[in-house]
């Protein structure tokens, strides 16, 4: 018993309504919630872009004054971090578009594509920083204006840590893996900014090689961020979910009156919202109307009790008679 078919005869507007809210709740509530999530994401991106751009420009001026390759690596990474806001903003805007007959789940997966772009940007910044550090090791130069380099390093740490906390907090609240990955990227930028202080201190003590060495260490740190961000995006592209979410959804369904057991459950992310498909087993003596009512209640509980779940499809199976296979005709197709 699948509920999706009920919306077909109502036309295109009804299909969009059913996609967003597959039972009796007002579709405007779910649409507003999705739009609010996208709006919060766009707000975070705009503010963090401004903060990181100002920070990176200030650092770039000091790079020209000092010639510090460690600060150059940090500056390049800050510029890269600011630029990651662009594909994410495009993804959030696309995600607000209505579903179509071709993109029947909407455009939420654009966030995952943005995550790929972010990973590429991080990789490019790591390559540039590493190249400049190696070049300076081969052809060393004295670092000047060490006091300003230290100030730039502290400014870089402060700006990145603030942006990291902001992005990670909101990203987790709205369920955006790309925004969380971007926040982790910014957090490591902050620690690499502190590493620039070590390079400046070494140069001040008469060890100019400390600057390019720190530049290489920063490159290694960026590579660790690259690994973590790539893993996060890979999981999302492969429809991975936290197993605890699956367990919680099964518990919710098991608590619904009339549900004997949960036969199967599937969850997937579409952008920063979850969708669910569940098969529940019911008393075979229930009428069609009664079984439908249990399915509606199960869907209702899932949507309300599972964070960030926006839609669920619930299929009901009869628990018996014993020895009866109600899906025998489908065996060859599974």
UniProtKB/TrEMBL annotation:
Keyword terms: Membrane, Transmembrane, Transmembrane helix, Transport
Segment forming the signal sequence: none
Stretches for region Disordered: 315-334
Domain Cation efflux protein cytoplasmic stretches: 243-318
TM annotation in the entry: 44-70, 76-94, 114-133, 145-163, 184-207, 213-230
NCBIfam families, alphabetized: CDF
PANTHER family: MITOCHONDRIAL METAL TRANSPORTER 1-RELATED
UniProt-recorded name of the protein: Cation diffusion facilitator family transporter
Compartments where found: Membrane
Family per similarity comment: Belongs to the cation diffusion facilitator (CDF) transporter (TC 2.A.4) family.
An annotated Gene Ontology molecular function: zinc efflux antiporter activity
Main subcellular localisation: membrane
Keyword Transmembrane: yes
Species for this entry: Thermomonospora umbrina
GO cellular component, one term: plasma membrane
Record membrane topology: Multi-pass membrane protein
Residues in Cation efflux protein transmembrane domain copies: 47-238
Gene Ontology biological-process entries: intracellular zinc ion homeostasis
């Amino acid at each position: 018993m699948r509920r999706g078919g009920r919306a077909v005869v109502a036309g295109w507007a009804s299909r969009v309504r059913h996609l967003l809210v597959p039972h009796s709740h007002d579709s405007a509530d779910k649409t507003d919630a999705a739009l609010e999530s996208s709006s919060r994401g766009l707000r975070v991106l705009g503010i963090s872009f401004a903060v990181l751009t100002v920070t990176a420009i200030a650092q770039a001026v000091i790079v020209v004054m000092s010639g510090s390759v460690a600060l150059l690596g940090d500056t390049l990474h800050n510029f890269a971090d600011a630029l990651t806001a662009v594909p994410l903003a495009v993804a959030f805007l696309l995600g607000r578009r209505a579903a179509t007959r071709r993109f029947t789940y909407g455009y939420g997966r654009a966030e995952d594509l943005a995550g790929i772009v972010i990973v590429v940007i991080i990789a490019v910044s790591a390559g540039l920083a590493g190249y400049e550090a190696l070049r300076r090791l081969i052809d060393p130069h004295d670092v000047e204006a060490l006091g300003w380099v230290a100030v730039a390093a502290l400014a870089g740490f402060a700006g990145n840590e603030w942006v990291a906390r902001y992005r990670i907090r909101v990203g987790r609240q709205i369920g955006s893996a790309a925004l969380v990955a971007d926040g982790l990227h910014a957090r490591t930028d902050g620690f690499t900014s502190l590493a620039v202080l070590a390079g400046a201190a070494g140069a001040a003590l008469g060890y100019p090689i400390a600057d390019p060495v720190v530049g290489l260490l920063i490159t290694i740190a960026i590579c660790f961020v690259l690994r973590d961000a790539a893993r996060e995006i890979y999981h999302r592209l492969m429809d991975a979910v936290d197993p605890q979410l699956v367990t919680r959804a099964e518990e919710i369904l098991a608590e619904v009156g009339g549900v004997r057991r949960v036969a199967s459950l599937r969850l997937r992310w579409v952008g920063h919202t979850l969708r669910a498909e569940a098969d529940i087993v019911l008393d075979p003596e229930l009428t069609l109307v009664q079984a439908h009512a249990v399915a509606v209640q199960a869907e209702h509980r899932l949507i309300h009790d599972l964070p960030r779940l926006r839609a669920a499809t619930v299929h009901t199976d009869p628990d018996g008679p014993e020895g009866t296979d109600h899906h025998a005709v489908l065996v060859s197709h599974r």
